[in-house]
UniProtKB/TrEMBL annotation:
<protein>
    <recommendedName>
        <fullName>Pyridoxamine 5'-phosphate oxidase N-terminal domain-containing protein</fullName>
    </recommendedName>
</protein>
<feature type="region of interest" description="Disordered">
    <location>
        <begin position="165"/>
        <end position="199"/>
    </location>
</feature>
<dbReference type="InterPro" id="IPR024029">
    <property type="entry name" value="Pyridox_Oxase_FMN-dep"/>
</dbReference>
<dbReference type="Pfam" id="PF01243">
    <property type="entry name" value="PNPOx_N"/>
</dbReference>
<feature type="domain" description="Pyridoxamine 5'-phosphate oxidase N-terminal">
    <location>
        <begin position="27"/>
        <end position="147"/>
    </location>
</feature>
<dbReference type="InterPro" id="IPR012349">
    <property type="entry name" value="Split_barrel_FMN-bd"/>
</dbReference>
<dbReference type="InterPro" id="IPR011576">
    <property type="entry name" value="Pyridox_Oxase_N"/>
</dbReference>
């Protein structure tokens, strides 16, 4: 087991200057454009004991850029566990990973965050199918475009990388096996129809 940063660093060459210099403390025109085209972001949070990475999606640009250091993320209906929102309240920190379908680069943002019911902030994310109850306000501290290597290795967007949904049991069946229960599990088709009504 590696027990120190020094031990870890000994295994790797130094970061290239470009990798360090590309980190910004604000959103430039390229970051803004990336966010405007992105329909999907992974929101990472933690409270020191619990950590969470939560997928968030919407129409491209559903995350609103207010200015060079402020983002607004509407909280769309989900499973109501509130893991991410609770972590933000406790720690005030988030990490974001924006993806654009078909683009192998990604955008990473780290910063301070708060959960708000401020009407002026909520008004800025209007247009969602369902009105969010809260909005996550992120103050950008670090923003950098991430290279394409991970998505190139995974071939995430390649047509021949796509899997048939039938290779897995239905979500209803998997949840029933994990949580216990009896009877006929909800079919994948019924679950998707229910989700469409709840979007």
């Amino acid at each position: 087991m590696i027990r120190s940063i020094e031990e870890l660093r000994a295994l790797y060459p130094p970061a290239k200057p470009r990798a360090l210099q590309k980190q910004l403390d604000h959103l430039d025109k390229h970051c803004r454009r990336f966010i405007a085209l992105s329909p999907f972001v992974v929101l990472a949070s933690g409270d020191g004991a619990q950590h969470d990475a939560s997928p968030r999606g919407g129409a491209p640009g559903f995350v609103k850029v207010v200015d060079d250091t402020t983002l607004l993320i509407p909280d769309s209906p989900g499973n109501n566990r509130l893991d991410t929102l609770s972590n933000i309240i406790l720690s005030g920190r988030v990490g974001l990973l924006f993806l654009i379908p078909g683009v192998d680069e990604s955008l990473r943002i780290n910063g301070a965050a708060e959960v708000s019911v401020d009407e002026a902030l909520l008004a800025q994310v209007e247009g969602e199918r369902r009105e969010p109850r809260v909005v996550i306000r992120v103050t950008v501290e670090e923003a950098y475009l991430h290279c394409a290597k991970a998505l190139m290795r995974s071939r995430l967007w390649a047509d021949d990388s796509r899997r048939e949904r039938s290779e897995l049991p239905s979500m209803g069946k998997m949840i029933q096996d994990q949580a216990g229960g009896s009877g006929e599990p909800e079919s994948q088709e019924a679950m998707l129809a229910r989700y469409r009504d709840e979007l």
